[in-house]
Amino acid sequence: MFKRPAVLVRTTVLTVGVIYSLVLLSAGSNSATLFRYLTSVLPALAVVLLLVWDLWLWRLPGVSRLTHRPRIDGFWQGSLQPTAESQIPAGGNRGPIPVFLIVKQSYWSLHLRQYTAESASDSRAYFWERVPGTSIDRLSFLYDNLPRPSERHRSSPHRGSCSFDNQSLCPSAIHGVYFTDRYTQGEIDLTFVDRSDGYGSFAEAQTHATAAHVKND
Fold it and tell me: Is 0.90 topped by the overall pTM?
């Protein structure tokens, strides 16, 4: 049922808030007043407000300017370009490498899944920061990469880090850099396609990208 920890946390917090409010209401049922009623339902209302903020409210243009939290959720298409110094095994792809990125985002949670024709990557930890003296909001994250079984004779699972610099609160393009523990590094350029998500493979993402471009032409 709970595919992501964030879903479990939201459900737990909401359940606890509602139960606490019901307990307060029951305890004061013999001397109910408007003030007691309002203070009793306050925990549940506070939890609901936090959930609304986390899932929707922070995305509003006026609100996002106050939080400096770029909205990058959705489906992205682009390419990876390893540097010439990257230690890529013989026969490996030296780029540019077509890539698709699917981002699931709320205010307090973020998950990025990236596909190439040879592997898939999932983010594990992330943080946002405002680059001092600029208008850039930088997203940095760690990720695990799992190559397809057909590629593992030359490409082993690995970990890496990546940073995206966002100069807009609702960007249409992203530029980033990455580094892996198998001594490869490079740059990534992405273009926003739409707000969709849920693609389970490179082929499925590629099919959607093709259909989206045909629709927009």
Answer: no
DSSP H/E element including 21: helix 5-27
Report d(CA 116, CA 65) in Å as an integer.
33
Taking residues 58-74, what's their average pLDDT?
Answer: 89
The two tokens of residue 45 are 């209302």
Q: Which amino acid is at 64?
A: S
> Does residue 40 contact residue 25 with C-beta atoms inside 8 Å?
yes
Would you say how long the chain is, in residues?
217
Cβ within 8 Å of residue 201, ≥6 positions away: 115, 120
Per-residue pLDDT band at 25 (split at 50, 70, 90):
low
Question: Measured between alpha carbons, how far is 210 from 111 in angstroms, rounded to an integer?
Answer: 24
Q: Where are the domains of the chain?
A: 5-55, 74-216
Domain 74-216 matching CATH 3.40.50: the answer reads no
Contact 206, 100 (CB under 8 A): yes
Task: Name the token pair of 129.
Answer: 């920061």
Say yes or no to pLDDT of 135 above 60: yes
